[in-house]
């Protein structure tokens, strides 16, 4: 089985926007791959007028939040660096006990790369705009911030439609829906940069 | 060969069932996110905190299991199910209409007009513009006979049949997931959110109409819309297609002044001690709809006119008395908001030649796209005139299971009681329109196309499951349909033991990597009584 890869359009965002953006993208992808019984949950973003869908599984929510926190820690240690988060879906191969390893082998059948460019301003999470003026002249005025925010919203929508298009166009590589309880049909992992 | 042909027949029957359920689910997804009558947007708010787990089987309704997508109850969508469709070859077209009403009348004017024209229920005589903001088309395109070679039937084995059905079910599930996400990303959803959450009386409203046909847009109208086509899902005999045409920039309803619902004190009412006894109410001309060949008592959709909203505002008003909203300047604000605040789609969508020009379009034309509907009963069953009605209509011909894909042991024979007496009724092509504003208007236009009481009777038996309304057998078409009672029939649905071969069996402990959605059901008497109907439908597939 081939592994389909989707590189999502890069998003330029600020530190305070990371959580909502990542939640939106990760939940949207997982919703499309949670082929067990789901009760969809609509979530309105606070930053933008965008509604995305969660699959409603608490475990999924917790796992995503955990990974987002880890990513934010990484961003704070590596400011102004482009980053990539990978959401992978895999199948578990039969355990093969061998001389060398007893590991469970994973066969990845789909990988999503979320590309982010976090602009790390010194006072980016502060609500006081005059501080940002003094500390970082490149931060721009409130108008610039609004323009960036509007551009990010457009880009986010593009990314969401990119996900939808990919899900629509590529279906053959998705494994058959297993007979499992819960919404999550396929195991997945979220990999953040180290 | 007999076994092979029986496999093929079973596969065809199951394929048709999947397609039928796909239509119903798609319709449900679209309407629940556009019908303002839906109570709550979130499923989680309807369920108790303890039952948020998807694996809780106690709160799962049978029909939720189809495509593993549990949607909140939406009686509007369920009314519009395939009761009135003859076969899966008929498409479902859902038009989402943005209705703009002129709230320039003060409450006392509205009540005055109501007294004089009690039948002008809708809007109380206010002017109204309607615009199709979305058109969803769900259809099953069947392949030509020569493409469906007989070798397909001959080579159908049990394993290949199972594989094919699993694949079809999986792809349909994926398509519905993406549909669910897409309806929430389109501009009309923003309007739906705003209108759903607003407690004020808005000048805007969302309506939708469902039919089996559509009048194509004009070139100009098409130029104003974008199209998104979902990748079709192939079957042995055709493909499931789903597409939407939508306006990329829709008026921002929140920027429009709204009428608060708080009561207003009228101090100078007739008879008030503060007023002269002989004071007359300001003389008002009779409020008429813009006369374009339609009668005042006809519905808004009966009007055929091509005036733009701007032109309408500039013309001498029919009523002299205005309250200060919206004014002409505000109407310009409305128009400019449509282009500046409306959501414009991302560039990743299929590009449209005039996409960018729409962003700067200033004139918003609320054109009427549909011809005047024929409100008289259709002279022949084959008439394709749109008929505006609500409630259950005639001709339920599609066999549709109202339960989940449930595994049936070989010896078990259960099916929904309501499906035993299903008949192929004479065709008709009704259209339903759901207005979220006037219940009286709905009840007045119910069942105008219903042809025979016989149909009503047969519907009456079954539609109790679908409508919840009290439909008396052999009743006249003037039947009021009570939407509020629809919940009771849904409970009937959920209690059915109707079973279906497609199952997500919780008892199975299969390897996650294996594909065990479908188990071969050798002796399903599920199809035994409906086999006749199935074969009739199959004949339609194969003979075309």
UniProtKB/TrEMBL annotation, chain A:
Upper classification of the organism: Eukaryota, Viridiplantae, Streptophyta, Embryophyta, Tracheophyta
Pfam families per UniProt: ATG101
Example of a GO biological process term: autophagy
Annotated family: Belongs to the ATG101 family.
Name the record gives this protein: Autophagy-related protein 101
Organism: Medicago truncatula (Barrel medic)
Keywords of the record: Autophagy
InterPro entries from the UniProt entry: ATG101
TM segment ranges: none
The organism's place on the tree of life at top rank: Eukaryota
UniProtKB/TrEMBL annotation, chain B:
Gene Ontology CC: Atg1/ULK1 kinase complex
UniProt entry tagged with the keyword Methyltransferase: no
Protein name: Autophagy-related protein
Keyword Magnesium: no
InterPro entries registered for this protein in UniProt: ATG13 (IPR040182), Atg13_N (IPR018731), HORMA_dom_sf (IPR036570)
PANTHER family: AUTOPHAGY-RELATED PROTEIN 13B, PTHR13430
A single GO BP: autophagosome assembly
Compositionally biased region (Polar residues): 323-342, 417-426
Biased composition (Low complexity): 42-59, 475-487
Location of region: Disordered: 42-61, 323-356, 409-431, 462-487
Residues annotated as domain Autophagy-related protein 13 N-terminal: 19-249
UniProt keyword list: Autophagy
Organism: Medicago truncatula
């Amino acid at each position: 089985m081939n592994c389909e890869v989707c590189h999502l359009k890069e998003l330029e965002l600020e530190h305070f926007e990371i959580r909502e953006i990542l939640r939106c993208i990760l939940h949207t992808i997982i919703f499309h791959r949670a082929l067990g019984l789901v009760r969809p949950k609509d979530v309105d973003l606070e930053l933008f007028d965008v509604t995305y869908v969660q699959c409603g599984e608490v475990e999924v929510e917790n796992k995503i939040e955990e990974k987002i926190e880890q990513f934010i820690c990484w961003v704070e240690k590596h400011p102004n660096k482009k980053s990539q988060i990978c959401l992978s879906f895999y199948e578990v191969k039969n355990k093969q006990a061998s001389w060398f390893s007893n590991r469970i082998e994973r066969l990845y059948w789909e990988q999503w790369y979320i590309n982010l460019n976090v602009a790390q301003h010194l006072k980016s999470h502060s609500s006081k705009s005059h501080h940002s003026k003094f500390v970082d002249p490149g931060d721009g005025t409130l108008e610039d911030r609004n323009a960036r925010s509007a551009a990010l919203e457009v880009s986010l929508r593009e990314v969401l439609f990119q996900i939808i298009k990919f899900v629509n166009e590529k279906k053959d590589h998705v494994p058959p829906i297993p007979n499992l309880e819960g919404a999550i049909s396929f195991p997945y992992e979220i990999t953040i940069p180290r | 060969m007999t076994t092979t042909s029986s496999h093929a027949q079973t596969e065809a029957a199951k394929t048709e069932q999947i397609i039928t359920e796909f239509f119903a689910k798609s319709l449900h997804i679209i309407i629940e996110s556009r019908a303002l009558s839906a109570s709550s947007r979130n499923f989680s708010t309807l369920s108790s905190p303890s039952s948020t787990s998807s694996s809780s089987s106690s709160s799962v309704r049978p029909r939720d299991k189809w495509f593993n997508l549990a949607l909140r109850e939406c009686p509007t969508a369920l009314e519009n199910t395939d009761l009135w469709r003859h076969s899966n070859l008929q498409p479902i077209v859902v038009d989402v209409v943005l209705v703009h009403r002129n709230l320039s009348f003060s409450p006392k004017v509205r009540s005055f007009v109501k007294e004089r024209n009690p039948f002008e229920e809708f809007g109380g005589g206010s002017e109204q513009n309607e615009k199709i903001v979305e058109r969803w088309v769900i259809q099953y395109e069947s392949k030509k006979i020569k493409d469906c070679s007989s070798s397909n039937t001959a080579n159908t084995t049990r394993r290949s049949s199972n594989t094919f059905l699993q694949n079809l079910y999986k792809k349909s599930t994926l398509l519905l997931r993406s549909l669910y996400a897409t309806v929430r990303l389109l501009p009309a959803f923003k309007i739906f959110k705003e209108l759903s959450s607003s407690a004020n009386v808005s000048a805007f409203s969302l309506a939708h109409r469902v039919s089996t046909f559509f009048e194509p847009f004009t070139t100009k109208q098409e130029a104003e819309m974008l199209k998104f086509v979902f990748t079709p899902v192939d079957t042995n005999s055709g493909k499931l297609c789903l597409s939407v045409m939508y306006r990329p920039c829709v008026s921002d309803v929140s920027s429009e002044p709204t009428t608060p619902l708080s009561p207003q004190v009228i101090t100078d009412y007739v008879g008030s001690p503060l007023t002269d006894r002989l004071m007359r109410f300001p003389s008002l001309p009779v409020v008429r709809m813009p006369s374009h060949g339609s009668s005042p008592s006809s519905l808004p959709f009966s009007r055929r006119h091509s005036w733009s909203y701007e032109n309408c505002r500039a013309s001498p008003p029919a009523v002299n008395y205005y309250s200060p909203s919206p004014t002409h300047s505000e109407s310009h604000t409305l128009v400019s908001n449509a282009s500046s605040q409306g959501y414009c789609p991302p560039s990743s969508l299929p590009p449209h030649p005039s996409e960018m020009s729409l962003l700067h379009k200033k004139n918003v034309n609320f054109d009427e796209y549909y011809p005047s509907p024929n409100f008289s009963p259709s002279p022949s069953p084959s008439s394709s005139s749109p008929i505006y009605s609500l409630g259950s209509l005639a001709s339920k011909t599609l066999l549709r299971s109202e339960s989940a894909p449930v595994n049936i042991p070989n010896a078990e024979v259960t099916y929904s009681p309501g499906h035993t007496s299903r008949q192929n009724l004479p065709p008709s092509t009704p259209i339903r329109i759901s207005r979220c504003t006037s219940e009286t208007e709905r009840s007045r236009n119910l069942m105008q196309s219903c042809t025979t009481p016989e149909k009503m009777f047969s519907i009456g038996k079954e539609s109790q499951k679908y409508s919840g309304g009290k439909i008396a057998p052999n009743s006249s078409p003037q039947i009021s349909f009570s939407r509020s009672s629809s919940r009771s029939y849904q409970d009937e649905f959920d209690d059915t033991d109707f079973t279906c071969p497609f199952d997500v069996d919780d008892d199975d402990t299969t390897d996650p990597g294996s594909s065990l959605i479908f188990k071969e059901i050798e002796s399903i008497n599920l199809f035994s009584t409906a086999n006749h109907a199935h074969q009739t439908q199959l004949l339609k597939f194969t003979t075309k």
